[in-house]
Amino acid sequence: MELQHVPVMVEEVMDLLRCGPNQIYVDATLGGGGHAQEILKQTGPEGIVIGIEWDEEAIHVAKERLRSQGERVKIFRENFIHLPEVLETLRIERVDGILLDLGLSSLQLEREERGFSFMGEGPLDMRMDQRGDCTAADLANHLSLLELEKVLTEYGEDRWARRIARAIVSEREREPIQTTQALRRVVHRAIPRRFHPRRIDPATRTFQALRIRVNDELGNLQKILESGWKCLKRGGRMVVISFHSLEDRMVKETFRRWEREGIMRMVTRRPLTPAEAERKRNPRSRSAKLRCAERA
């Protein structure tokens, strides 16, 4: 557990959440506890952070990091779509703010056995909640050609989706695709060399697409957006950090609809992005986009 996830855009998050003494906040993507730690600093001495996280390894790290805060931290191993039920368990009706940081953490990316990254060799897993039944290998080896193409098109927005899907089906007929490097090699061969992107690995979009499907990331995001705002006090804020266009588009369109309906007010008309110094210090932050809305 020596890896530490570096929280993204901490100052911007704190400014928008407007953390104050003795308030209650939900960190719905607790991760290693970096954002939660800062919220606790700014809500002392009796402020509370409710941390929701479905990755067991991340929970171990967060508990160690936040141990000194005692009862001020309430941690639940749960999918954040169950936030209303978590609050009901705690007998809390409304909170002062909700944070969603939708990015992967170092705890996931740098552990080869989790299968999120093609930088090393590991099983093709990608489950954020390892209690789940379906892995990325299951999808790669069992989805039909049309289903694979649809996943790569919708979740990876990949222009080569059809070629990659065909290559995956062809490879698995020869031998099951079980590892990250096996899948990466298939994708590299499927895309003509002259069309390999310069800035990202050719397999990036394929890995993103399978990960989103394995964890139902977009479905879960839509659910927490639709239920989460109801858990806010009047004037309470929801802050969302997204890392790819599909998430950001969903957040933007939902926030705009809320404003039209008069239930929330958009605080950020355009997404905030990390400052240059942060991008240099933490290259993984470079694609982050932060949006905020306030309950009317």
Note down, in words, how this protein is organized.
A 7-stranded mixed β-sheet has the order 3-2-1-4-5-7-6, sandwiched between helices. The mean pLDDT is 94. The protein is α/β, with parallel strands linked by helices and 296 residues long. Strand 2, helix 3 (56-65) and strand 3 (73-77) form a beta-alpha-beta unit. The chain is 43% helix and 15% strand.
Please give the structural blueprint.
Elements (H helix, E strand, L loop, with lengths): L9 H8 L6 E4 L6 H9 L5 E6 L2 H10 L7 E5 L5 H8 L4 E7 L4 H4 L26 H7 L2 H10 L6 H14 L5 H11 L13 H12 L1 H12 L3 E11 L2 H17 L2 E3 L9 H6 L7 E7 L1
Parallel strand pairs: 1-2, 1-4, 2-3, 4-5
Antiparallel strand pairs: 5-7, 6-7
Salient structural properties:
296 residues; alpha/beta; Rossmann fold; DNA polymerase, domain 1; seven-stranded mixed beta sheet; 7 strands; globular
- Helix/strand order: HEHEHEHEHHHHHHHEHEHE
Count the strands? 7
User: How would you state the average pLDDT, rounded?
Assistant: 94
Helical fraction? 40-55%
Radius of gyration: 20 Å
Helical run tally: 13
The best one-word shape is globular
List the quaternary state of the chains: single chain
**Largest sheet at a glance?**
7 strands, mixed
CATH class of the largest domain: Alpha Beta
CATH topology of the largest domain: Rossmann fold
The CATH superfamily of the largest domain turns out to be Vaccinia Virus protein VP39
Strand fraction band?
A: 5-15%
Span from first to last CA?
Answer: 41 Å
CATH architecture term of the largest domain: 3-Layer(aba) Sandwich
